[in-house]
Each structure stands twice: as structure tokens, then as C-alpha cells.
């Protein structure tokens, strides 16, 4: 993924996060029929997210001047499980609204 001159490379062990809509160019470098590229975009309502975090008592770190609007981070098992649950909802559309 290119944002201006900066390249963000990620693989199955990493994910890319963007906190705002940005003008980017993307390119899938490696994909085959047996190992296709799968990507999805999850848009979150910032107001709802903040309300859930406040209600849950989740503490946030103080703002860091080095924080970027786009970044790549390692994927952990919990995040993979949550993403898989979301993707599996495509097979059970009646449950989408509930979950």
C-alpha cells in the first residue's frame, strides 16, 4: 500500500490499519488460486466506538506525536478469531445484525 512516497508492506502475519480515509494505491504482490488474497475493510463509527470504550472502562494512552494515520502491526490469534467470525457471517446473514 502506498501513501505518497511511503510504502506499507504487510503479509498474513500482519494487518494494516487506517484511521482516516487516505488517497492510497495498493498492489497485491502474491496470490494464487490455491492461496488467494483475502482482504476486508471494517468501518467503525468513531462516536459509537468511543461510547463503548467509555462504558467498558477501557483506558487509552496519551496521544503520541509519532502516531500515524496508517500503520502495519502484527496480527495475533484474538484478532484473527474476531476477523474470521465476521467473515463467517457471510454464510449466516440472519445473524449479522445480532452480532
**Number of alpha- plus pi-helical segments:** 2
Specify the structural class.
Answer: alpha+beta
Q: What is the overall pLDDT average?
A: 87
Helix proportion of residues, in percent?
A: 10-25%
Assembly type of the chains comes to single chain
Largest sheet: 2 strands, antiparallel
Secondary structure tally: strands:
4
Q: Please state how the strands of the largest beta sheet are arranged side by side.
A: 1-2
First-to-last CA distance:
30 Å
Order of helices and strands: EEEHEH
Sheet-strand content, in percent, reads 5-15%
Instruction: Please state the overall shape, judged from the principal axes of the Cα atoms.
Output: globular
Salient structural properties:
two-stranded antiparallel sheet; alpha+beta
How does this structure look, described?
The structure is a single chain. With 99 residues, the chain is an alpha+beta fold. It has one domain (2-95). 23% of the residues lie in helices and 14% in strands. It has helices spanning 46-56, 77-88; strands at residues 2-3, 6-7, 14-18, 70-74. A hairpin with a 2-residue loop joins strand 1 (2-3) and strand 2.
Amino acid at each position: 500500500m502506498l501513501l505518497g512516497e511511503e510504502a506499507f508492506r504487510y503479509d498474513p502475519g500482519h494487518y494494516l490499519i487506517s484511521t482516516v480515509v487516505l488517497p492510497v494505491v495498493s498492489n497485491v504482490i502474491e496470490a494464487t488460486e490455491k492461496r488467494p488474497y483475502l482482504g476486508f475493510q471494517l468501518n467503525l463509527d468513531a462516536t459509537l466506538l468511543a461510547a463503548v470504550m467509555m462504558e467498558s472502562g477501557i483506558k487509552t494512552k496519551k496521544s503520541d506525536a509519532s502516531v500515524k494515520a496508517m500503520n502495519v502491526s502484527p496480527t495475533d490469534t484474538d484478532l484473527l478469531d474476531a476477523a474470521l467470525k465476521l467473515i463467517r457471517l457471510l454464510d449466516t446473514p440472519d445473524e449479522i445484525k445480532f452480532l
